[in-house]
Each structure stands twice: as C-alpha cells, then as structure tokens.
Amino acid sequence: MLIHKTASAGTLESNDVLVTVAPGSGIQVHVESVVLAQFGGQIRETVLDTLSRLQVTDAVVRLNDMGALDCTIAARVEAAVRRAGGDA
Amino acid sequence: MNKLTSNLADAIRASGLQSGMTISFHHHLRNGDGVLNLVLAEAARQGIRDLTLQASSLFDVHLPLLDHIKSGVVTGIETNYMSAGIGRAISEGVLEKPVIFRSHGGRPAAIASGRVVIDVAFIAAPAADSMGNANGVSGPAACGSLGYAMPDARYAKRVVVITDHVMPYPLSPCPIEETDVDIVVQVPSIGDPKGIVSGTTRITRDPVGLSIARLAAQVIEHSGLMKDGFSFQTGAGGASLAVTEYLKPILRAKGIQGSFGLGGITGYLVDMLKEGYFAQLLDVQCFDLTAVESIRDNPQHQEISAERYASPNARSCAVKSLDAVVLGATEIDLDFNVNVHTDSNGYIMGGSGGHSDTAEGARLSLIVAPLFRARLPIIMDKVTTVTTRGSAVDVLVTQRGVAVNPRRPELKAGLAAAGLPVLDIRELQSLAHQFTGVPRAVKPQGRVVAKVEYPLGGIVDEIRSVIS
Amino acid sequence: MRRSLLFIPGNNPGMLVSADIHGADAVIFDLEDAVAPNEKDAARLLVRNALRAMRDLRVEVVVRVNPLATDDFRQDIAAIVPLQPSLIMPTKVADADEVAVISRTVADAERVEGVPAGAIGLLPLLETALGIENAFSIAGCDPRVKGILLGAEDLSSDLQAVRSKQGQEILYARGRVVMAARAAGIEVYDTPFTDVDDMEGVSADAKLARALGFSGKAVISPRHVAAVNAAFTPTEDEIVYAREVLLAIREAERQGKGAVSLRGKMVDKPIVDRARRLLDGARSLGLEGTEP
Questions:
Q1: Looking at the domain assignment, is residue A1 inside a domain?
Q2: Inter-chain contact B373–A34, Cβ cutoff 8 Å?
Q3: Whole-model pTM?
Q4: Nearest CB to A39; choose among B345, B373, B439
Q5: What is the ipTM of this complex?
Q6: CATH number of the domain that A59 lies in?
Q7: Is there a contact between B210 and C23 if contact means CB atoms under 8 Å apart?
Q8: Complete domains list, chain B, with CATH
Q9: Which is it for strands B395-398 and B379-380: parallel, antiparallel or unpaired?
C-alpha cells in the first residue's frame, strides 16, 4: 500500500498508542513508549510485521505508546496506514 | 517559664541545632506540609550544614529539599517513604550518602533502641498550648492522629513543637505531652489543608480494581479468619480500599463482630466502626476528613503511636494482633517478594510505609494488584527492589486468579475448596505474558543510592542509581 | 445460559482486553453507538484484533455492528466474521426482510472466509416501534436468530414516551418481545439499566425482567454484572422446590396419577416443565441442580 498523506490513529490514553504515518522513502519507525526499556524491541517488531502484511514499503511511522498491547498496536498502525493510504 | 515564641529563628538557635546533627519530622501533613521547608530554609539561613534528615515520609511538597542537598545543608536522609519527584532526584544521584529507608515500625524501633539518635525533633502540630501539649484534631491544619510524631517527641534530645493554632493551657487530648517539649513556636501557617487530607477518600471506580477487590474479599472469607474478633487493615489506594466494601456484606451475612480496624484510617473504616463491624479503630494516621472528625469525636476511635502500631522492639504492637492486611505492589516476584520502592525503570517512587511491618505481623497478608498495568506485568522473575520479603506474603490476588505462597499449603487448599481460581504464581505470570509478551529485565546498575532496612534491622536490599 | 451481556466500547483497548474478567456470561463488543463516526474504521480493526487475541479466553463474545443502511455494516461483517464470534448483533432491526439480508451477508462472508456455514448466530436488537411490532416475525424468520434484545432508550424516543426508572412506558414492549421470542422458541434479553451508580435500581430492574420471562439482561457497566447475574440465578429455595416437584411427580407417575399436591398446591405438567428448566439452568451454572 502506498502512503499518500499523513494520518493518525489511536489515542494517548493508558493502554492505547497514538500512531502517525507519513510518506517517506523506505521504512522509518520512531517509538516513544512508557515501556520502551522493557518492550521497545517487541513494539518495533509488531510495527514492522504490520507494515509488511499491508505491503507498505515506504513510510515514516511514529508511535507515542502508553503501554498498548501488541493487538492494539497492530490495529492502530493498520488504521493509520489505511487512513494515510487512500484505501478510503 | 516561657516555652512559647513566635520567632522560628530564635527557636532553632535555642534548640541548640548545629551542623552535623540529625533533625526529625513527621508526615501527618502529607503533601500539605509547610514545616519541613520552613525549618530547612531557616537552618540554611543560619549557616547550618551537614544535617541528617530523619523524616517519617517525604512528599513532593518538599522538593525545595533538593536545593538544600545541593548546597550541603542536608547530607543524609532517612525515611520510610519518598514520593516520585524526590525519589527521581535521589535515583539520579543528587545525594552522595545512600538514603536509609525504614518502615513505619522499624523507624520507631531504631529510635527507641538508640541506634538512631534525633538531636532535634521539629513537630508540626495543628493545635498546641503554650507548654507544648499538642494534638492533630483542631486548628486549620487538622490532620487527626499524630501517631508518627509520638516516638520523636518521646526519644529526641530536644523537641520543638511548631503550630499555627495556640490554644489555652491545658490542651486535651494531647498525644504530644508537655513533659517532652522544650520549645513551642507559633508560625502563621504549618501547611496547606488541601494537601493534608482529602475531603473524602473514594474507592476506585476502575472495574479491574473492583473485580480484584471482590476476589480479595472472597479470599479473606475463606481464609479461616472470619470469626468474632476479626481484625483488618487496608491501604488507602486502588483496589485495597475497595476490599472493605466487599467485606462488609460477608461480615454481615456471617454475623461476625470484628475487634479492630488498624492503620491509616479512611472514612470507609470509620463507617464500618459506626455500623458496628468493628469495636475499635486503632489509628496511627488519618487519610481523610471523615477520619479526622471521627478520631476527635468517637472514643472508640483511638489514636496510637507508631511504636504501638508496628515497632518490632516493643513488648507487643498492634500489627502482631492483626488478622488480615490488604496491601498493594508495584512488582511481586516468583518468591512473593514485593517491591513498593521503585518503578519498573528503577526510579524510587515510594517506600515501605507500613508494608513490611504489617505483612510480617498479620496472620494473612494479601497483595492486590492487576496482572499487568498498561503493558507491564506485575509478576517478575525477581523484583527490582525487595521491600517486603516473600516469606511474609501469603496471597497474591489479581483479576484473573489467586496465587498462594507455597509456605501456606492449608490456605491454598481451603481457597481451592471454596472454588476460588487458585493458580501457581508461575501460571499467573505466563498468563500475563500471553497478553503482554515477556519484558526485558531492567535493573539499574549505578552506585548505591539507597538501602532498605527491614523492620527488625538488617539491610534487605540496595537501590542503585539510574544512569540515563 | 446468558444471564448478563456486558457492553464494551469497541474503541477502548483497555476495556477490550479486560472484558472477560467482570463475570458477565457474554460480552458485547460495540462498534455502533459507543464509537464516534470518524473512529468506526479504527474500532473495527481494534475489535477484530481483540477477538483474535481473546480466542482462548472463556467468555462468549457478541459483536454489535452498525445498522444495515450504513456503509460500515458490510465492512463490519467482513472484518468480524473471520474471527467467528458467537453472535452478531444487528441494530435497529425493523422487520424480517432486513434479517434475511443480514443473514445472507453473514452467510456469504462465512463461505468466503471458510467459517462453517451457520456458525455465527444473530441477536437482533429491537429498538424501534416497527421492530417491536414485528418482533415475532423477526424472532422466527431465520434459524440464525438465536435471541432478540430489547433496546428501550431508542424505543422510548421513537414512541415519544418519557423514559423512567420504573419502566411503565416499556412494559408493553417487554411483554411483546418476551411473547414473540418464546413463541418462536428463542432467547430474549432485556434492555440495560442506565444509572450506573444505582445498585438497588439495577437489582430491582433485573428481578422484574426475570419475572417477566426474559432469559437475561444487557449491562452497560461492569459494576452491574453481579446484581444482574444474581437476579437471573436460581435461588436455593427455587432449586429445593424444583427438586421436590420432580420427586413428587415421579411418585405420582408411579401411582398412575397425572398430577399431585405439593405444599398445598396442585403440581401438573407446566409446573414440572418449569422445574426441569430451572434445574437445567442451575446445572449449567454449576449449582446443585441435578435431577433427584
């Protein structure tokens, strides 16, 4: 999927994550998280898996994570990608 | 003889305070306390340095303390609890000498034994007379019990009572007695009532917390302790307090007459006293206005000292007669050790308070905690800091099940027989990991910035600085 | 047995992952009214992922989808069916034709996704005057319809009635949906009680619903679950009496009689049927409900 514009999904409430996806070249993932020390690697992996499943090859993805579980992170990344990608 | 002055500078000079001494403060004014800041500012003005602070707890209202540390006025801290703002600075290494953390019972034990010597105790008093009889139940800064100040008054070399509400001699009641008091200082204000007690303490509305509380009450119900004479203590936070609400119908249904509620007292325990669930409340600290009014007006609501509350050196103390205590945890490990000192990144944000005292003393110690907070599992392989030893903890209650310490097989059998969801603590941990994934262990590796002393003495753990 | 069905807002990750801990017999992940119009897409993905993550947990999941007339409806069905929730709850259902369209849409999705045909049931929400009037034909039109739920908030607005705690204004609708569901041989669930702080109110309302014949009740606050479960759980007295009824009728049969007197009242077939049903319910809740 191609990223045409900047779009976000999610919130800054506890257990949620605010994901912003923007056009870019190649994949760049920036993670801010309240659990970065404990789960930074897993969060990044979930983001990359989700992007790859959606066949996104070029995007800048920023996460502001309030302790979301993987299923939430994947859902928010997918929602942001679809909003940014002209899927709608 | 005139003990009363309105000049704090004179009072400090008259107390004989000198560089290198130990001064003490109580924390009944909590995050509204003005006295610790006032005294340190005046001591600094007089050029006094190298003080050791012997405070029963420190709150973020005391953040000016950090400047006194940087300027060398304060070079040592011994306390039972430290809120996150001050804790962060300590974790980042602002103080060279390690902080000594004690418990609410361990502190008076150390003071009574002479292991800790207080040169001057500065006792904030919501009401006092000209001779230093003082209480916490009157005046604009009324806080209720003065339980943590009582050992300081009794054992310190010099005692300065600081009040903003002088009442006619002889003041009654007087948990602080004139026989112990050297100087009385009248100041315009000892603190901000808004930070001292909350109007009412409310139980959590968080549905996860409530489901944990409901399960915890069922654990107590089937613990074998539900008999006439039942005694109970609970923390004031999160799910702990909500346990009282679920306990009431159980006590009612079984027709049980409890003997006493203990500890930091909230309106919920006051209601239980009024409704006849308990015969007495033993109160070392009031958490809300309802508790303050009750301790003032109800003779069945007794003020007790920190020594009577929990000192392991006393000939006896109340926690040793306690049936059940409900406590929280930041982390608990596979050996049931509990941490309430540091957060998951190793920053200091609390302290034992009465955690280790009550867990060691009570017949049944329950830890109530969600299986994970946001994404952080509560059950670790090893806790970051040991506050309370696992040998003192009987049951962990989470929203998805109960783990019983293997040292209590009869309790485990009883709870399982009652149909409660009893799991091995490792099963609960792996259940949490199914949701969260397995966290990378984070253990600060810097120099030692604090030591945790167990109630009976002896260092149970060390806290290292966080290097960012 | 579904005594309580707890609504969980579909766009709230914290509530979704702890949905199963409140003791409700079923949870309803809500993609409709609990989700803002511009968050429908995000909620759909979140609920889909939560369903996947919660597969191993022992709670029945219902998904409330957006109305048939909206674009979101088909997207909801496409996203949710692969995860095979127990029930899908279509909203503002007005008549049997609508149910037929919904059922076909679900059937198509089941085929495409390789979900066993008919695996997913429907629990239509009746919350309009027309829907209540058509309750029987909705209840009986399709084997996929496993139950119906009364929605009193939208209904009383549609009726131009004043909504009250006592619920006089919905008494007719309550009777009507119970009648329709029982006539069609399916389950029927009562509207939620909306004052989250009124514990006595929810308890009384749930007891009334049970007395009227409802199978269970929807719940909008986790704090209401215990009261609703209690109201729909057979009491010890009821269980004891039901067992006595079965013993008495067995004795009567042995003596070749069709009816018998128990506690001064005639026991005959309807009372025996009721006793059997009550003991079945008690047994499914793990209570002492075995037939004597």
A1: no
A2: no
A3: 0.92
A4: B439
A5: 0.95
A6: 3.30.230.10
A7: no
A8: 4-196 (3.40.1080.10), 199-443 (3.40.1080.10)
A9: unpaired
